[in-house]
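Much of our argument rests on the idea that a fold can be written as discrete symbols. In the encoding step, the backbone of a single protein was reduced to a row of integers, each denoting a local shape. This step matters because it turns folding into a mapping between discrete strings. For completeness, the protein is quoted in full, as a sequence line and a line of structure tokens:
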Amino acid sequence: MRILLNVYLVLMIFSCSSSKGLTQDEDLESKYFIKKIKTKNSWHIIYASKQDNLYKIVVGKEAVANRECEKIAVNKYYALALKSRRENVPVINGVKLKPINHLDVESNAYDKKGIECYSYDEDTEICIEPKNEIYDLYYTGDLKGLCYSKK
């Protein structure tokens, strides 16, 4: 009887440790992996992946750098609440961007190759990338410039 109880306890310990590993994997699956960060005029373009999907996130550059912020980095995971540019009219740095969606596109909303683009200011258009399977642009309140504000 004592041997049976010991075997049961050992099995319980192993099952608890293996379920803990699953939780960590699930936690990473719920986060975005930062692949690349580029800049274009007053904007940061962040390429992130989650569960085999690629996302193009656009955030405004911050005028004043916050020294106490956690700056996002390539090859790291972050929990971001993304909002679709196509489905929402974003306000970035206090500026409401003009709404353009795939059903109501202005004549200048396509580049020379016929790819859909969004105007972020007078000098900046950022386009989707169908060849990379990016069909929408995203924004988030979790980033101020490249500072991650969600803990």
